[in-house]
Design goal:
The chain is mainly alpha-helical. The chain is built from ten helices and no strands. The protein has one domain (about 5-170). The protein has helices at about 5-10, 15-20, 25-50, 55-65, 70-75, 80-95, 100-110, 115-140, 145-155, 160-170. The N and C termini lie far apart (about 30 Å).
Length: about 170
């Protein structure tokens, strides 16, 4: 299962409903917002793990030890201050700066018609959910964590992440 499906279907759609309610969106708009923001998170993860065994090891360690799966298993936790703090920390690692986060939200706003401020607020929560979904798949064992990560980064499923990163960069700048 790809990461978007995992997020949208977690808990029979509870994560999607929680995020929609939390940000005053209907489920369709929340789905579009998530789909529009995910490429930036995938590109950030790819950048941090590309060509770096240490980056990949650090990410897998965070997935295994970070207890992020709780955000997917209990969507009510997404309203906690801790979810925002964790999400901002995750964003700091994968996007690098608030300026990049603002650009991501701005581009997603253009794509979805949802206000940039709503998307900026949604981004850290989505980051916790992404880590939660990846963590859940990682804890399932059998290499699923690496497979899930690769699938997440290769958004179009063509076996190459280069085109996904190029498409994302073109949209962002």
């Amino acid at each position: 299962m790809n990461i978007l499906s995992e997020i949208l279907n977690s808990g029979n759609g509870q994560v999607l409903r929680q995020m929609a309610n939390q940000f005053g969106l209907d489920e369709s708009d929340a789905r579009n917002a998530i789909a529009s923001l995910l490429p930036a998170l995938a590109a950030g993860l790819k950048k941090n793990t590309e060509g770096s065994k240490q980056g990949t090891d650090d990410l897998l360690s965070a997935l295994i030890e970070g207890n992020h799966s709780g955000y997917v298993e209990d969507p009510d936790t997404l309203t906690w201050d801790r979810a925002v703090e964790d999400g901002n920390s995750i964003l700091g690692h994968i996007l690098g700066s608030k300026d990049v986060s603002r650009k991501v939200a701005g581009k997603a706003s253009t794509n979805t018609g949802i206000a940039p401020d709503v998307l900026k607020s949604m981004l850290p929560i989505l980051a916790t959910v992404v880590m939660g979904a990846l963590s859940k798949q990682t804890s399932a064992g059998g290499g699923q964590g690496i497979d899930a990560l690769t699938s997440f980064i290769d958004l179009d499923g063509d076996g190459s992440v280069a085109d996904d990163l190029l498409d994302f960069a073109r949209k962002l700048f």
